[in-house]
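Human: You know discrete backbone vocabularies at least as well as I do. Show me how you would write down a chain together with its backbone fold. No explanation is needed for now; the record alone will do.

Assistant:
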Amino acid sequence: MDVAFILKIAGIGLVVSVACQILSKSGRDEQATFVSIAGIIVVLVMLVSELKELFSLIRSVFGLS
């Protein structure tokens, strides 16, 4: 995991946070909830690819098939 990946996650968190605050202040609480859920899903999808690489690295280190 490199620094660029961590910065991408932080950027997504910042954008989602600002969007949720704006939507919440304008009285659109349901849309703010959907935006936060969408942000969590995007980050989890990004993490799945990184976890896949981690598990393949672990398998190659220990000689598993």
